[in-house]
Automatic annotation (TrEMBL):
The keyword Transmembrane helix applies. It is a multi-pass membrane protein. It is found in: Membrane. This is Putative inner membrane protein. The keyword Transmembrane applies. The lineage of its organism: Bacteria, Candidatus Dojkabacteria. PANTHER family: TRANSMEMBRANE PROTEIN, TRANSMEMBRANE PROTEIN 245. GO terms for cellular component: membrane. The chain crosses the membrane at residues 21-46, 122-143, 175-196, 202-224, 236-253, 273-299. Belongs to the autoinducer-2 exporter (AI-2E) (TC 2.A.86) family. InterPro entries: AI-2E-like. Keywords: Membrane, Transmembrane, Transmembrane helix.
Amino acid sequence: MRLFIDQSICSSKKRLHAKESISAYITLLLIFLTAVLPILAIFTVVTTQFLSIANDIRSSGTITSESFSLEVIADQINSVAANFPQLEYQVTTQQLSSSLKELIEPVSGIALNNVVSLGGNALNAFTGIIIFSTVVITVLLNYNRLIQVIHQLSPLPNEVDKRYLDRLGSMGTSMVKGTFLVALAQGLATGIFLWIAGINYIALWVLISIILSVLPLGAGFLVLPLGIVQIISGQVWQGIFLIVTYLLITGNIDNVMRPLLVPKEASLHPALTVLGLFAGLKAFGFLGVILGPMLMIFISTTLEVYVEYYKEKSVTPKITQ
């Protein structure tokens, strides 16, 4: 754990000139303030909004939002279909509402079941937090000793061990800065523009945008379809606004922030990040969002260290004639 926060959070020890125990507890507090508590707050708000969407559709047959009107969408579709008499097809509000119900109800049921499950496993979650806190404090207080043990157990030269650990630390920091911070910035920017356009359930869209921002196209998977739907539903300037702001601002946040936050030599290729993310989700569940990229960093670092220190020293067999 320390390998990935030593270069950022744990600098509090040097800045505050505090004892190791005080620095360790400050680090743990910062972890909860910057990661755990925001995640819990976002999860609570998003779950509430998602269930609100499902309840709106279940009770009134539509989404309670001025930005989305099933009547307007049905009228727009029918006006386009009227240009093709051979189709002889008319869309009704009831059909759109029924389709939305079929789409939302299974997902909302899963979300509700997960909420109930989380409530029932509150004790396990509390136990996990205690274990996590204990491990973090122990590692931070015994970091130097842990590094010595690694050097003693490792069959590699100390120079290689140091290079290995430094590389893991720098790439772990770059992953946090270059992937999660950029995704957070893109998600927040998307949320601001959606709020200006009058879209409801902002917290839900922000969370989806942050998750999608890990992918190459990022929040465009969400914003561009939303912009098109806005235009079709008669909210023309809102739809154009969403598309233009994504193309000019949100889509370029990555190009501006990543070079400033991540040194080129410490960056992990986006394709490897995405591969590690989805592989981690498949293998470890939600924790795979963190564990997957970390394992990919470990594999990438292992290959780089091997190439740098051993492949060049390998003996090329001589060919005798």
